[in-house]
Inverse folding.
């Protein structure tokens, strides 16, 4: 599926790790044959992943042999992990070797620092088109999974390849975790094109990361908003990085200041800054902003990727044709996933979406047809009859006070958390002025650090 004969024959480097070790397309092909012999059937496997040779080899071997993997963070809390095993009954686990003692299962194979464990559980019935499972939550342990088809993965790789004009000579940094849809998209898209993926399994603040980036001559950097906040503080835009060709952002909305900083950096240095938009349910990427418009369409997610369509609907499900009118954004295309699973029996279901995905994001479209996200359907409160967009209010506070902010709560009371204890009263007055709310409708609290999950997104269930 991802391992093309031409790249196997050339023995091209598929992966390079932080120690400079190589894993070629031929190595992956040979490993996939052995992996298939050890499992010898179409079944369900849990892969406890990290950005290492063992994890990516197990994932690719599973896809190549029609074995269905669920990718999980190897640091998933034990009780949550065990709950998923009870719910989905995987026949095999592929885990880092150092975790073997955490399980009471038979070891049937070892390779690349990973072990294959046989659980003796009875795998659920798997639909023929089911290729991959990804969690909707990495932190809450929810058993809700996104069901991907083989077509979804192929179309995502094809679309990203088109947008980024991927070549065999590309060397793409994989620093986002592979159980996260954006991180996995980097791996699959560049492998499908015969390029080299540079696997990094650490923090952007590690000195070894910057050495790896430069010595391995990375041509593509992909990050989420939190990644860009970090590298901005580390003065990334002042570095000499002659090999870097593309800087790609996804996974949420960048602040206009940071967006503009990287758009200007790309223009100044002859690189491309490509903002993208996607969801796990859409196999990562669904929209992109052409790099030549990064300076003139700051904050836009752009338009739909090739072979996809974006449109807005109103509260009655009618398409909104006028510009600058907010509505729920809907995406349609062949990368829209099959649906969700909540229990093992759901894995025998086929396509429940038929290529159409209501995103849950509120957006507007400008007169040129470019989309801008303005909030989430679920991120609204109705306080004293006033509808409040929490995302919009967070943005206003950040923009006006220069601090991080989180807005949560319910229709009884809104809670606003800011990272500066000296401005609580100022923020309260600002909110009253902007929203016309009574002061009883909300409270402003101090929080030292904004809680985030392991891919840098704000965790709103911290109370």
């Amino acid at each position: 599926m991802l391992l093309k004969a031409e790249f196997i024959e050339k023995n091209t480097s598929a992966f390079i790790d932080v120690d400079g070790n190589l894993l070629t397309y031929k190595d992956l092909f040979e490993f996939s044959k052995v992996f298939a012999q050890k499992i010898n059937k179409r079944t369900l496997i849990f892969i406890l992943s990290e950005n290492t040779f063992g994890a990516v080899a197990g994932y690719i071997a599973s896809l190549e042999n029609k074995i269905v993997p669920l990718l999980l963070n190897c640091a998933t809390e034990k009780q949550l992990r065990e709950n998923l095993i009870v719910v989905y009954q995987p026949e095999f686990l592929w885990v880092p070797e150092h975790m073997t003692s955490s399980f009471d299962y038979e070891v049937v194979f070892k390779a690349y620092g990973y072990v294959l464990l046989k659980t003796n559980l009875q795998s659920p019935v798997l639909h023929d088109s089911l290729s991959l499972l990804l969690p909707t939550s990495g932190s809450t342990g929810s058993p809700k999974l996104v069901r991907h088809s083989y077509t979804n993965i192929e179309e995502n790789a094809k679309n990203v390849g088109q947008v980024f004009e991927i070549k065999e000579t590309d060397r793409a940094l994989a620093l986002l975790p592979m159980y996260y849809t954006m991180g996995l998209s980097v791996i699959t898209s560049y492998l499908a094109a015969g390029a080299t993926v540079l696997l990094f399994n650490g923090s952007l603040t590690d000195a070894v990361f910057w050495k790896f980036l430069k010595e391995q001559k990375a041509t593509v950097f992909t990050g989420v908003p939190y990644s860009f906040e970090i590298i901005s503080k580390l003065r990334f835009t002042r570095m000499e990085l002659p090999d870097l060709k593309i800087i790609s952002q996804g996974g949420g909305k960048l602040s206009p200041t940071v967006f503009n900083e990287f758009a200007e950096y790309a223009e100044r240095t002859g690189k491309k800054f490509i903002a993208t938009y996607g969801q796990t349910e859409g196999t990562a990427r669904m929209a992109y902003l052409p790099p030549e418009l990064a300076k003139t369409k700051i904050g836009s997610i752009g338009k739909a990727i090739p072979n996809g369509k974006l449109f807005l609907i109103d509260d009655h499900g009618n398409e909104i044709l006028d510009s600058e009118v907010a509505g729920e954004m809907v995406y349609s295309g062949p990368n829209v996933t099959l649906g969700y699973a909540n229990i093992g029996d759901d894995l025998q279901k086929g396509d429940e979406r038929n290529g159409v995905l209501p995103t849950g994001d509120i957006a507007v479209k400008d007169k040129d047809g470019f989309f801008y996200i303005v909030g989430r359907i679920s991120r609204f409160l109705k306080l004293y009859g006033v509808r409040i967009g929490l995302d919009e209010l967070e943005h206003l506070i950040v923009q006006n006070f220069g601090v991080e902010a989180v807005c949560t709560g319910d229709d009884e009371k809104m809670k606003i958390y800011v990272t500066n204890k000296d401005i609580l009263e100022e923020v309260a007055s600002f909110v009253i002025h902007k929203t016309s709310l009574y002061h009883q409708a909300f409270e402003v609290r101090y929080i030292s650090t904004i809680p985030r999950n392991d891919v840098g997104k704000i965790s709103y269930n911290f109370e």
Observations:
- The longest helix spans residues 25-39.
- Residues 150-329+360-376 form a domain with the Rossmann fold fold (CATH 3.40.50.12780).
